[in-house]
């Protein structure tokens, strides 16, 4: 047999084969868990999930460290409270709902978390469009679960926003009246099945690059929600990548469909990181408050660098003739997205803005009876409990 295994016969052969496969797996994807835990596909997350886990560990550490002077919260004057707030942020501790915070910090967070929550909910629509037309039972089940995850993300985020003293009803109302925004990416249509793959790979991929640093955001409830969300998003990205991989290794028509989807989603995905740093309005203060940790352009670059290698594995091309490695910068040079188009879509003039918000308004109207029934049940329950007490 050529090895010192003490197991004889068939079992020995199996062990030997297992070891060989394990070594191959280790060489192939740089880990020794590929076959052990049954991963079905080498994932594209580029180490981001590791960063989420590190952020989670840091969050636990911070919770155990505590901060000297925390007692200064009650009855203190504003200067003392402000000092405490600054000290918490500088020590990489978390601001919690019970803590004093500057009004601008609270408002910035409400705006950002609400916009994020709205994006999760509106983001259910482009892919929801394909649930009835998914090409197989397996694809349908995965897509259903994915779209349902996005509803869950919206829920965690509305709950995180509510800790800042605003109600979910108010936030939903602001979305429906167009007073708060959602990510402009969801105003683009999903024309083919391959778009579901492109959304998972590129749109969820860009979302993760954006959101992993938010796992270290200074506001505790937001950071904790982001950890859970990022873990789920990494699976969303993986499923999109796997759809594209299957299509690009299928018939010429399937490969062309995958390429067409990437051609249409690439630049809108780059635009998800927002305007370039030179034109970004909220960044500096958000960085100082440790809500934001990297600039729009830094995150966009990171995303581009990740996607180039992944596109090669997919056997598909990113639609940018000027994409090339820059030895000096140790990063890829790339063509910027059309920021004028981004601004037009944000202002309401994208291909599907009207359709998305109309659909959300209708769903909200049609769900009124559910909200009323839940409120009536809660009221009855309260009366029952009071009577029993
Ligand atoms: Fe999500
Ligand atoms: Fe997602």
Q: How many β-strands, per DSSP?
A: 2
Q: Give the strand line-up of the largest sheet.
A: 1-2
Fraction of residues in β-strands: under 5%
Q: Which ranges are low-confidence, i.e. pLDDT below 50, for 5 or more consecutive residues? A: 1-8, 23-38
CATH fold-level label: Ferritin
Order of helices and strands: HHHHHHHHHHHHEEHHH
End-to-end distance: 76 Å
| Spatial shape | globular
Work out the helix count.
15
Tell me the Rg in angstroms: 24 Å
Mean pLDDT across the residues is: 87
Secondary-structure-based class equals: mainly alpha
The helix content, as a percent range, equals 55-70%
The CATH C-level name is Mainly Alpha
The count of domains is 1
Bound molecules: fe (ii) ion
- CATH homologous superfamily name? Ferritin, core subunit, four-helix bundle
Q: Biggest sheet: strands, sense, closure?
A: 2 strands, antiparallel
Any key phrases for this structure?
two-stranded antiparallel sheet, Aromatic_CoA_ox/epox, 389 residues, disordered N terminus, phenylacetyl-CoA 1,2-epoxidase activity, binds fe (ii) ion, Ferritin, mainly alpha
Secondary-structure blueprint:
Elements: H1 9-29, H2 48-65, H3 78-90, H4 103-122, H5 124-128, H6 137-162, H7 168-176, H8 193-211, H9 220-248, H10 252-271, H11 283-288, H12 296-314, E1 324-326, E2 331-333, H13 339-349, H14 353-366, H15 368-388
Antiparallel strand pairs: 1-2
Helix pairs in contact: 2-9, 4-6, 6-9, 8-9, 8-10, 8-12
The protein binds fe (ii) ion (2 copies).
